[in-house]
Amino acid sequence: MRRRSLLLAGGGLAAGALLSGGWLLPDSVRARLRDAVLLGREEHVGEPLRDLPVIRSENGVLDYDLHVAPARFTVAGRRLHVDAYNGMLPGAMWRIRPGDTVRIGFHNGMRPMGLPLNAAPPMCATRPGENAGGPLECVPAFMGHLKEGETLPQMLLSSNLHTHGMQVSPEDPSDNVFLRIEPGQSHDYEYQIPEDHPAGLHWYHPHFHGSTSHQGWMGLSGPIVVEGDIDEVPEVKAARERVIVINEMWLNEDGEVPMAVVVPTAGKTPFSSIPAVPTSMLFPLNGQYQPDVSIRPGETQRWRVLNASPHRNIWLHVEEHPLHQIGQDGIPFGRTREVPSIMLSSANRAEFIVKGGSPGRYTIYAEAYDQGHPGGDRPRVDLGTLVVEGEPADGKIPVDLVEPPRIPDLAVANRRELKFSGDISGQEGMGVRFFIDDQLFDQDRIDQEVVAGTVEEWRLVNEDVFQHPIHIHVNPFQVIDVQGIPEGDTSWQTSPDIWWDTFRLPPEGEVTIRTFFRPDITGKTVFHCHILPHEDNGMMGTLLISPAEGEARR
């Protein structure tokens, strides 16, 4: 069978024109720009938010070739040179249904940028306490752990594919995050979507330990929409759908993600390379810089928003517009919740209804927020503009939605306590290391073993000043207790009936979660901090989901 493949040759003119930050503008945008100049306003007018290309399952099968290779884009007037999925930033949207089979032909065509593949990385530095003129000793890279004889470029260009949030097998040929796919290699994935899979927004991205941050900063990500019951709620069905991917791109002056050792710093840009070069952050929506999102007064739209940032929490606000949330992390609510804003940690997704207010332009932004970084608050970022204009509409906000999943009425089979900590002293190498139960990640070690078909409670204790958004693969969970929320921090959602697959631990606080391990999915997978520099530097553990006694492994 021939797979469909949306590939923009070389990522050149077609991709650049599609994603351009400042040319090929529609006449309506040009007119607003002209008016802004004539009136003396300093107002950013963006391109209309684009819809992402869609790959849809047909007759129960989605069959698609996914190439990751260098491409060039223009965003915010800057020329970018990054690896991309099929020449697109972000990747195409997959739309599937429960019971479908998803077949992905993954092809790693990444190439080094700034260093030849066999180059020795600049990894030598003076140990703390040594004189500047003293002996130099090679120490581990900030991102990941190199094997003997391995160079930094070789590690950063190794990849694989993770379908984040999907309740699918973690074993080959499905969602096996332990695979290492080198440049020039390919791998065929096949995912069987359970018949009872919840409807909602998930996503795909790289998950090779040591390279996740580097590849995430390139914008390697794409949404997965599982269609189902909530799509048939009349008010939801009537609303225009917008799928929005927020990327965080850390770039040097050449528009590339530095292929170098990375260390955390204070300041507006929270990371620096070794050797240090000027860098900055971009936060595009669907590959566009601060686009305009149009809506009519009174019109309702359904927004599905993914925070694909490797590091940044997005405390999402839409100026003067409340958000009517209908789902979190790919699982719908039973009733709509009106909230003034939604916090999206790295990897979180939120689905909500926006209703157009009075005509005008309203900023879509991430509010400044302190997530425990030594530099203090991450600054406010303007992401786009909600443009309310046109003929009034009479959109309706839903109240009752669908019956959400429920944890079976089973006794808690096991209670566990896990400790999360970090070391920023530099004694463990350049920068920091992050630990779970005082151990760095080792894929050959089993850290936690659970039994499929059982309910467990985990107490997650954070001994660190960083907030750590913890993600557990395969099975989502509910949060039944949170301790240590910083005083005055109004960004937390702590209702115990919300389902999550990623939830942040307060600094020096703790969270208790409850989960049901599906009886039909077993295998070895992982749990980890989804601040990807933390994951790459050790904060990940292995999880073995064993079949119940007498049950065969799926």
TrEMBL record:
Keyword presence, Oxidoreductase: yes
Annotated InterPro entries: Cu-oxidase-like_N (IPR011707), Cu-oxidase_2nd (IPR001117), Cu-oxidase_C (IPR011706), Cu-oxidase_fam (IPR045087), Cu_oxidase_Cu_BS (IPR002355), Cupredoxin (IPR008972), TAT_signal (IPR006311)
Domain Plastocyanin-like: 160-228, 243-373, 435-548
Protein name: Copper oxidase
Gene3D superfamilies from the UniProt entry: Cupredoxins - blue copper proteins
Signal peptide feature range: none
Keywords for the protein's UniProt record, in alphabetical order: Metal-binding, Oxidoreductase
GO molecular function: copper ion binding; oxidoreductase activity
Listed CDD domains: CuRO_1_Tth-MCO_like, CuRO_3_Tth-MCO_like
